[in-house]
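Backbone-to-sequence.
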């Protein structure tokens, strides 16, 4: 029979023929490279077009549904090719877009999903005897997953890659059909209900029992395959494809069909909880297996060393008993503790008594992508906070924060190499300027209220503590990148650093806020000066960087406030206190006071160490020389010391008002200077009249000696090696301290015979001997060598400031040099060797040998524009004793223990000194170290 007379094949036969040809075409597409792949794609497009009318023909439907393997191969290849967008094949972008459009317009996935739902519904009357349902579900969700995993890459492409955006839109269209979405929700909800035992939202119970639960297991050849978990018991790994497809569907952003916004939120949050519970279960299982292995190893070792005689067995009975007890303890822990945690983490839907218990967990590799996808989609539905939000949305935002905190505690340690999870931190609104003692609102901004209710404050402290223990771990990167780095510029945003921590300190639970401050203080004590300086100057991540970022940000915020007040003609603006402080303002003042007490002494020690290194590099006392290639180490040492000293130069003058010494020329300083100079009075170290702050500056920090050392190091430094404005702030601080503490400065100016210091070579030795003791205690600060305030160093700084255009401050430096020269020669200001202000000089008269004009100029230098506002803002700082009493921590000032999640929790476990009962310690090592450091002399036995 000729071909012309052969009857045309029936439509079912045509469909079957096309399906039979698809596996070979799929294999060619996978193996061939351009340009031959273009031909294959065109052939595939033609066959897809030929299938289109057959899909609508009811007589061809059986053939289209008969070849599952061919159908799966076709859709899998189409999904992979349509989503693949390597740069090497950019010329195929248009063809991929057309292919994705053909997939969408042909409704192939819609028909596949509808057929799957019909098959599952038919199983209510006819059981799936051959087990094809599992493979059908796997096939559909494997295809959807291949499409879904490419969507973020296509959707986030820049404007220049508009073809990627169009491709993403086409791929979303493929997945947005009603049947596809319904199948995704049904299968995802069934998996979720089986895993967490939560509500099914009206899904028929029969369908809950019939939809396959896909599990993962590794075959003999290493390939991972799926199987139905309904016939399995025990702890099993649940395939995540159905859940990820459901997350993608719920997070598409254009859903108007059920389950609606609140239903979608509930499902997404449940997926996040399941990811966290699975991580907790994996951690518990790992700990249980490790303990069991250790116990079994001990038992085997004990059995190997035991003899066969009863006497030997009796002799080793103690060790054997220990091993057996360990084994029993391990088994007991495994059978009660971890399993109880797992059961609580993943509650199960009640099963009939005859059905064994099934515990479902997600694979470790799926935790991060699934959690991040669910949290991102949930946050898109409930953030940002609105004024007319329903309570459900506010509760959902709080739950997002709790999930994030739980993930960082229970999953992040399990997968330290995974990408960082999605975080709600980016949804925090700028709280605005926050000044201590200001009349702040009674409640935080809405976004911050959600964060505080969701546990962000203790979560942040825990992340910082774990980052301090392991700087290479993900916790440090997560806390630093999400808190202090501007996502738009990838730079440290100093002002936002201060505002972020300030709102937590102002509105957080007081003990939790104080614990955060204490943790940052411990991180500072353990910090490396070079790495910490890099955190300031280069924005690198280091555990203690948050404290310096906050100090820098607060200083910058103060400068901004100064500018606002100046522009308003001195009126209260920009966060300046203009009324009675609110409860939040008072708490912020208390926490800032505690932070300054806890952070400044260790920071001063770090500065001393850094300046020691700079001096040992040969900079001390030398003339300024241009940088050369061989002076890189010297330049690095100068930059390190300058970066660390800079925040101290902001805060040292600011704290002088708390010492009852005026920093402007209009306030009387005669009695104040005498009080400041009489640091040997009866005030205790924390007695504020204001002896506590004076003790902090002069004894614990050694501020006068520190400034003298800075004069030696930075007077010889090249301006390019210093932070901008560094020399200006150094001269201002020196003038302020000369006015506030004239006795200490006069003593520092004449420490060596004839007012001359040791040789330049000896300077390094002085620094090396002094730096370790700086600020550890009053005795240590008093016994360390002083570094003379040489007049010629101030004269050198005066010349540098004039060269940089700061003539007024250059004159102040020159005037301070003249005062120092008169003090070296034995002169004084005022009566009894005490400094006097301009007003007091008019009453008493200038001291012999000190030009009154020079002293007035020094006073002007101490009353810089910033200081007036700083004095006004910081007048609400509380006494040192009150600040340090906000939280009881280890009495050893060098304690750097980061055990536990919070300093607030550690307080309950402090050990009391058995002799005096006043000191408490976190461990025996700290108690012994404190005893050697001087507590032996201070410890008074109890009555």
């Amino acid at each position: 029979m000729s071909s012309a007379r052969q009857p045309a094949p029936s439509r079912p036969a045509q469909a079957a023929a096309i399906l039979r040809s698809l596996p070979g075409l799929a294999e060619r597409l996978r193996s061939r490279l351009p340009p031959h792949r273009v031909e294959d794609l065109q052939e595939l497009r033609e066959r897809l077009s030929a299938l289109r009318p057959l899909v609508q023909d009811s007589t061809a439907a059986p053939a289209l549904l008969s070849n599952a393997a061919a159908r799966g191969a076709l859709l899998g290849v189409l999904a992979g090719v349509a989503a693949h967008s390597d740069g090497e094949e950019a010329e195929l972008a248009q063809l991929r877009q057309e292919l994705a459009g053909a997939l969408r317009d042909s409704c192939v996935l819609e028909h596949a999903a509808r057929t799957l739902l019909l098959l599952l519904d038919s199983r209510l009357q006819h059981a799936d005897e051959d087990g094809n349902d599992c493979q059908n579900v796997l096939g559909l969700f494997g295809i959807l997953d291949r499409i879904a995993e490419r969507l973020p890459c296509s959707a986030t492409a820049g404007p220049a890659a508009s073809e990627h955006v169009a491709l993403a839109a086409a791929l979303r269209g493929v997945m947005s059909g009603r049947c596809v979405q319904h199948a995704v929700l049904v299968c995802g909800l069934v998996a979720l209900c089986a895993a967490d035992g939560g509500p099914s939202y009206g899904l028929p119970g029969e369908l809950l029992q019939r939809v396959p639960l896909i599990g993962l297991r590794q075959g003999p050849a290493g390939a991972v395959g799926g199987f139905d978990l309904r016939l399995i018991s025990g702890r099993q790994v649940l395939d995540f494809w159905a859940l990820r497809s459901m997350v993608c569907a719920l997070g598409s952003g254009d859903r108007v069909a059920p389950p609606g916004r609140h239903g979608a939120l509930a499902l997404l949050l449940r997926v996040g909880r399941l990811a966290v519970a699975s991580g907790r279960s994996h951690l518990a299982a790992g700990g249980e297996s490790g303990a069991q292995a250790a116990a079994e190893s001990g038992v085997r070792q004990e059995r190997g060393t035991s003899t066969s005689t009863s006497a030997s067995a009796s002799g080793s009975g103690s060790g054997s008993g220990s091993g057996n007890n360990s084994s029993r303890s391990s088994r007991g822990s495994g059978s009660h503790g971890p399993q109880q945690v797992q059961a609580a983490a993943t509650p199960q839907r009640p099963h009939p008594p005859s059905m064994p218990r099934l515990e479902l967990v997600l694979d470790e590799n799926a935790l991060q992508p699934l959690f991040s996808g669910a949290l991102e989609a949930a946050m898109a539905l409930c953030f940002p906070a609105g004024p007319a939000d329903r309570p459900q949305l506010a509760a959902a935002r709080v739950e997002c924060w709790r999930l994030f905190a739980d993930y960082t505690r229970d999953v992040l340690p399990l997968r330290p190499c995974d990408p960082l999870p999605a975080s709600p931190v980016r949804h925090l609104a700028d709280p605005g300027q926050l000044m201590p003692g200001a009349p702040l609102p009674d409640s935080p901004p809405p976004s911050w209220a959600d964060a505080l209710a969701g546990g962000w404050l203790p979560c942040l402290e825990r992340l910082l503590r774990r980052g301090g223990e392991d700087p290479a771990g993900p916790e440090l990167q997560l806390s630093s990148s999400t808190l202090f780095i501007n996502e738009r510029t990838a730079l440290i945003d100093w002002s936002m650093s201060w505002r972020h921590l300030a709102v937590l300190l102002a509105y957080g639970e007081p003990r939790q806020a104080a614990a955060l401050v204490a943790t940052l203080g411990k991180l500072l004590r353990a910090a490396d000066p070079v790495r910490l300086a890099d955190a300031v100057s280069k924005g690198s991540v280091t555990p203690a960087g948050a404290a310096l970022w906050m100090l820098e940000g607060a200083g910058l915020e103060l400068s901004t406030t100064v500018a606002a007040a100046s522009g308003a003609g001195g009126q209260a603006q920009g966060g300046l206190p203009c009324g009675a402080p609110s409860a939040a303002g008072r708490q912020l003042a208390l926490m800032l006071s505690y932070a300054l007490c806890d952070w400044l002494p260790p920071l001063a020690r770090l500065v001393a160490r850094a300046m020691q290194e700079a001096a040992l590099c040969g900079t001390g006392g030398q003339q300024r020389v241009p940088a050369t290639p061989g002076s890189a180490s010297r330049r690095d040492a100068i930059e390190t010391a300058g970066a660390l000293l800079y925040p101290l130069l902001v805060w040292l003058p600011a704290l002088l008002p708390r010492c009852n010494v005026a920093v402007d020329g209009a306030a009387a300083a005669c009695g104040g200077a005498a009080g400041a100079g009489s640091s040997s009075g009866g005030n205790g170290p924390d007695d504020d009249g204001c002896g506590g702050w004076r003790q902090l500056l002069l004894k614990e920090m050694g501020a006068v000696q520190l400034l003298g050392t800075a004069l030696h190091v930075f007077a010889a430094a090249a301006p390019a090696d210093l932070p901008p404005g560094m020399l200006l702030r150094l001269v201002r601080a020196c003038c302020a301290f000369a006015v506030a503490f004239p006795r200490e400065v006069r003593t520092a100016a004449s420490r060596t015979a004839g007012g001359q210091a040791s040789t330049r070579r000896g300077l390094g030795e002085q620094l090396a001997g002094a730096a370790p003791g700086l600020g550890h205690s009053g005795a240590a600060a008093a016994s360390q060598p002083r570094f003379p305030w040489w007049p010629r160093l101030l004269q050198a700084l005066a010349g540098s400031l004039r060269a940089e255009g700061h003539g007024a401050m250059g004159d102040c430096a020159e005037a301070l040099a003249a005062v120092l020269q008169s003090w070296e020669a034995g002169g004084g200001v005022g009566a009894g060797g005490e400094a006097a202000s301009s007003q007091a000089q008019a009453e008493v008269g200038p001291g012999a040998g000190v030009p009154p004009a020079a002293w007035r100029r020094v006073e002007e230098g101490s009353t810089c524009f910033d200081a007036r506002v700083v004095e006004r803002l910081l007048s609400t700082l509380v006494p040192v004793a009150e600040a340090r009493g906000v939280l009881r921590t280890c009495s050893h000032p060098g304690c750097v223990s980061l055990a536990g999640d919070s300093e607030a929790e550690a307080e309950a476990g402090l050990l009391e000194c058995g002799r005096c009962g006043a000191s408490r310690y976190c461990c025996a090592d700290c108690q012994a170290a404190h005893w050697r450091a001087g507590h032996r002399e201070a410890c008074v036995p109890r009555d």
